[in-house]
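Task: sequence in, structure out. Protein: Regulatory protein VirG.
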Amino acid sequence: MLSRDDRRLKIAVVDDDPAVRQTVADLLTEEGYEPVCCADAASLLSTLEAMRLDLIVLDLKLPDRDGIALSAQISATSGTPIIMLTGRAGDIDRVMGLEVGADDYIVKPFHNREFVARVKAVLRRTMREMTAPAAASPKRGYRFAGFTLDTDGRKLTDPMGRPVTLTVAEFDLLLALVRAHGRVLSRNQILDLTHHDRDDVFDRTIDVLILRLRRKIESNPQQPWLIRTERGLGYIFDCAVEAFGG
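Result:
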């Protein structure tokens, strides 16, 4: 069971439908998590001020706030991972959710086992970052263009030594690109390397994540030189990379 400091992980369940909230809360309780139910955006924001959350399961359509706008606000001010939960299945909604920093996306109605697997996958990918000592120096990782990618602490620092905030999905994508530096990776190859527990991720997901990464590490995202597009083939991390720590 996932734990931190011997406490139950707190997961906010944000949905205006009482039946959905109860179903999700029951699933999380059965897995040993502590659900915190919120019926609207205002309730979630109050909860974030009052306690630390380990994950937010956020409905796209809320009575007092658009879920995508709310996700963007949370991503800009908090490192709490977000799983978007919605009844919309269109690609455009998935893309919008990813663009604002959501870590995963689940369409209602969902299978209980799939939902639990998604929750565990996001938490599993964040556990090392959550438990890594804040002041610890990176023991293993990669250096490129002045950046340092700490693979143990799941952190990225820029050439000035400042932390670069990455979502779980962004970090996994950057790590895959860096490890394959100098080689072109197709979208399918990137999906295989970064989304092991998903079977409905689509190619556009990678394009959106690439755009987000470029905004954070490229000096000019409109003319990228670190992550280049090879038209019709995929993407290549076109930069010298130094591995350290074995």
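The chain has two domains: 10-131, 141-244.
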